[in-house]
Amino acid sequence: VVAQLHLLLQVLFTFIDLQEVVMSHLGKFNFKKIILLAGLPRTGSTLLSNILAQNKIFYIEGNSALCQLMWDAKQSCDITAAQQLKGNNKLKLVKNNILKSIPNSYYPNTSDKIIIDKCRPWVSLPNMKIAKEYIDPNIKTIIAVRPLDEVVASYAKILFNNGHKEDVYDNLLSVTNETIIGSFTSTYYAANQKNNNNYFFYSYDKLVNDTPNLLKNLYTFLDIKNYNHKLTEIKQTVFENDSFYNLKGMHDIRKTIEIQKNPVVLPEWVKIKCDEMTLALYSKIEENNYGTFC
Fold it and tell me: Residue 288 burial (CB < 10 Å; 0-12/13-18/19+)?
C-alpha cells in the first residue's frame, strides 16, 4: 500500500509539474491578430469600422471592454491578489497566463480574422504597456483625431437630442470627464511618442473628404493588400446598443459619407479652451512626424 501511494504521488507531482510547464508556455503564444482603434470620440470611428468591415478579413465590434478587462486583471494580480500570488511564488506565471488568455476569451471563434479592437484609452501609457506585453510588442494602433471644438459640439448635439440641458459644457470639459478629456490626454500622450511606426493618426476631415486615399494609406500601414471598398450606400453592420448609454443615435451612421452642418453654437469660453487643446495636440502630431494624418 505504501509503495502504491508513493507511485500515485509521483504521478500526481509529475502531472502538476507538466501542467506548470504547459501553462507557462501557453501565455507566450499570440493567438489573435489584433489592431487597436483609439483616440478622440466623435471622429468617425464607427463609420471607419463599418467601411473596414466590408473586408471579411476583419472582425470588428463596437466599443470594446477588452482594455478594461485586462487592466482589471492586472490590478487584481498586482494589488488585491498580490499577497497570495507572491506567497506561492506564482505572480509572474499567473498574471502572464491570465492576461494573455483574455483576448482569446473575449474574441472566441475568430482565429481566421484580424481583429480591430476599438477603445479610446488604449493609447494611454499604462494601457499601451499592457497591449505590448500581453498582446503584441509591435501592436499597430489607429488613432482618430478631430479639432476639439468639433468634438465637443458633436457630443453636445447628441446630448441635446437626448433631453440634456444647455449646461453640458462644464461636464464635457471637466478633468474628470473620461469621454473627452480622458481621451484627449491619452491621445496627446500618443502624439508625444516620436517616430512610432506602429501609430497611424487619421483626422475626421480626411476620413470624410478623402476617404479612398485614407484607406489606401491605412492598408499600407497595416501591411495588408488594399481592398475595393464600397463608399456609397454604406450598410451598417457594426452596431452598438446606445440605450445602455442613454444616448440614442450615438453610433448610427449615414449611408453617404458627408459632413452635416451642426447647429450647436459653442460658448466663447468653450471655443477658446478647445482651440488651445487642438493646437497643442496637432502641433505634437506634426512635430513628431505624424503629419500625414491631415
Answer: middle
Q: Output the CA–CA distances (angstroms, integers) from residue 137 to 28, 124, 190, 196, 286, in the order listed.
A: 12, 15, 16, 13, 25
- Cell 497643442 -> residue: 280
Collapse the DSSP code of 288 into the 3-class scheme (helix H, G, I; strand E, B; otherwise coil) and give the result: coil
Q: Which three cell numbers stand for residue 135?
A: 498582446
Residue 111's pLDDT is 84
Given the C-alpha cell 465637443, which residue does it identify? 152
Cell numbers 450647436 label which residue?
264
Distance CA 226, CA 19 (A): 43
Enter the C-alpha cell of residue 235: 450598410
**Exposure b/e, 97-111, CB count within 10 A at least 16 = b:** bbbbbbbeebbeebe
pTM exceeds cut of 0.90: no
What whole-number distance in Å separates Cα of residue 283 and Cα of residue 294?
12
pLDDT the model gives residue 73: 98
Average pLDDT, the chain: 89
Supply the DSSP symbol for 79. I
Q: Give the CB-side neighbour count of residue 61, counting CA atoms within 13 A.
A: 14
CA angle 115/119/123 to nearest 5° reads 100
In Å, what is the CA distance from 209 to each residue of 85, 142, 144, 174, 202? 53, 18, 15, 31, 12
Q: How far is CA 248 from CA 114, 161, 244, in A?
A: 29, 8, 9
Q: Cell numbers 471598398 correspond to what residue?
A: 229
Alpha-carbon separation of residue 258 from 237, 255, 263 (angstroms)? 19, 9, 16
**Confidence at residue 13, expressed as pLDDT on a 0 to 100 scale:** 53
Q: What is the three-class DSSP state of 204?
A: helix
Burial environment of residue 166 by CB neighbours within 10 A (0 to 12, 13 to 18, 19 or more):
exposed
On the question of pLDDT at 36 being above 80, the answer is yes
